[in-house]
Fold this protein.
Amino acid sequence: MRRGWKMALSGGLRCCRRVLSWVPVLVIVLVVLWSYYAYVFELCLVVYLILYHAIFVFFTWTYWKSIFTLPQQPNQKFHLSYTDKERYENEERPEVQKQMLVDMAKKLPVYTRTGSGAVRFCDRCHLIKPDRCHHCSVCAMCVLKMDHHCPWVNNCIGFSNYKFFLQFLAYSVLYCLYIATTVFSYFIKYWRGELPSVRSKFHVLFLLFVACMFFVSLVILFGYHCWLVSRNKTTLEAFCTPVFTNGPEKNGFNLGFIKNIQQVFGDKKKFWLIPIGSSPGDGHSFPMRSRNESQDPLLANEEPWEDNEDDNRDYPEGSSSLAVETEA
């Protein structure tokens, strides 16, 4: 009876958490809908409406893709078989468990390790983590090339939707900038008392204020992610240096500026601005710097970084501008 009550309470709390996780998304949607109404119907700046709607379409399209593109999980070959899982869980000696994972990982294309040099294993999903894969404590799953969990899209940003998230940031910046620049002349009229409508005064004032406020925060976040893309890093890798079989290397996936961009957007430039999937690969393995140094000796000129900490620890939820990074 008591156990059933606890289970019901736990289920209710999980349900409430899922509902509340949509609050940030709802706030963004309401702000965007109000901005559309104020700009199109209240100010009715006919000259600017064509370009405004073009930006608005791409802005909403990329936001939709960022929210509803599901995070991609490792495929079945990275999961422990039923037999291996039983052997692993029944083994009480940590050193033997560690060796078991090493033997299993030999069959898989994994080259990153924990800070102690062990195979990266998720004891919640019961799988050997592919390179750049991490467990999201919010989504309760391992996510391929996980970057962070973003509350503003209520989704985990990773291999399947990182391109869409970057495009969303870019079109958000452009959307805010366009509104601020086109509304500014009306703000001057408001300041001089040349706007007769009281309702128009309200919309002009708050359109400019909200656009500028979001523009500043989005530019910072977008600039940070542009830097990450240029180095072929995820947010988690920027905070926690990846460890390879030969030791920690902060630039382990850095292939050079152009190739780094292509790792996110693909090699066909005609798809770079459109929110359709074009990232190369399957998210389970990635080209590494060490494999390209023999072809391009210039890649070996950067210095190594400091040692990393254990990859199997639980990371507390922390915020980075508009993003929340969570990993186990």
Residues 40 and 210 are 16 Å apart (CA to CA). The radius of gyration is 24 Å.
